[in-house]
């Protein structure tokens, strides 16, 4: 079902009126931590919907979001930056609607994915992920067989190669990743960047922290990410894991007058 223009305008006006926007990675971050911490954060977001906006910034296939929100009691986002930044879409809880004006540059920078995969497929130690792709390719890698240098020819062709979490490889259009796509979305929506908290835990979240937005590098993050954000003053390195780390960062950055309680 497609939202009417008036409904879309009303939702945007509500988002623009919020005091805070949480733009968060999912696995290990928003979906990470103890059940008590997740419940504390999720219940607070639902109770503060008039003051707190929610954007998912994820490497997951964004079409699965409605399903796990419904099954696991996860709050619904208003927008999704998915596929490691190559999808930028509105979300009404049922239908994901890519925003053509924001994706045009991404589509232009991407070539024929099948032809690109044909170049990568013979390389040892890489296995294509079982997910639909629009403007990216993503692989699992076997550290015993995979040589990162084998992808240098792909970089030379004008693509970015992102290796993260000790097991993932993403091939993306040059200059496209979570951070730049999130900034494009925030500008499109007319949102105040100073009200935004980004949260993540792996190297594919690094570009979010490099935007200069306030950040939550949640506890238990990938060592490579911790090293990379060491000199970024707005990237708060949390001691608490997952959802509890997000709560910790809301307090640390003073982003809301009535933040959720930090779980014991």
Q: Could you give a short description of this structure?
A:
Helix 3 crosses helix 11.
Structure description:
The chain is an alpha/beta fold. It folds into 2 domains: 5-105 and 176-253, HAD superfamily/HAD-like (Rossmann fold); 108-173, Hypothetical Protein Ta0175, Chain: A, domain 2, CATH 3.90.1070. The protein has 11 helices and 12 strands. α3 (35-47) packs across α11. The longest helix has 13 residues, at 35-47. The mean pLDDT is 92.
Question: Number of helical runs?
Answer: 11
Quickly count the domains.
2
Order of helices and strands: HEHHEHEEEHHEEHEEHEHEHEH
* pLDDT averaged over residues: 92
What gyration radius follows from the Cα positions, in whole Å? 18 Å
| CATH architecture descriptor of the largest domain | 3-Layer(aba) Sandwich
- Helicity level: 25-40%
Sheet with most strands:
8 strands, mixed
Strand residue content:
15-25%
Compute the number of strand runs: 12
CATH class of the largest domain: Alpha Beta
Instruction: State the end-to-end distance.
Output: 42 Å
Biggest sheet, spatial arrangement of strands: 5-4-3-2-1-10-11-12
Superfamily at the CATH H level of the largest domain? HAD superfamily/HAD-like
Structural class: alpha/beta
Q: Which word captures the global form?
A: globular
**Low-confidence region ranges:** none
């Amino acid at each position: 079902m497609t939202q009417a223009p008036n409904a879309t305008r009303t939702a945007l006006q509500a988002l623009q009126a919020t005091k805070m926007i949480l733009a968060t990675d999912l696995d290990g971050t928003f979906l990470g931590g103890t059940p008590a911490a997740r419940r504390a954060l999720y219940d607070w977001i639902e109770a503060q919907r008039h003051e707190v906006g929610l954007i998912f910034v994820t490497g997951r296939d964004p079409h699965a979001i409605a399903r796990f929100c419904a099954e696991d009691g996860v709050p619904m986002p208003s927008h999704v930056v998915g596929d490691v930044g190559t999808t930028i879409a509105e979300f009404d809880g049922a239908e994901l609607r890519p925003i053509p004006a924001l994706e045009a540059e991404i589509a232009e920078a991407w070539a024929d994915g099948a032809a690109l995969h044909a170049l990568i497929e013979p390389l040892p130690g890489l296995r294509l992920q079982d997910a639909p792709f629009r403007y990216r390719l993503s692989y699992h890698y076997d550290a015993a067989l995979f040589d990162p240098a084998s992808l240098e020819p792909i970089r030379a062709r004008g693509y970015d190669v992102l290796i993260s979490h000790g097991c993932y490889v993403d091939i993306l259009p040059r200059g496209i990743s979570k951070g730049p796509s999130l900034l494009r979305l925030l500008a499109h929506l007319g949102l105040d960047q100073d009200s935004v908290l980004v949260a993540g835990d792996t190297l594919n979240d690094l570009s979010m922290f490099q935007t200069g937005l306030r950040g939550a590098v949640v506890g238990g993050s990938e060592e490579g990410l911790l090293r990379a954000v060491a000199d970024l003053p707005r990237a708060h390195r949390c001691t608490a894991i997952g959802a509890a780390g997000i709560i910790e960062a809301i307090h640390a950055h003073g982003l809301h007058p009535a933040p959720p309680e930090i779980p014991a």
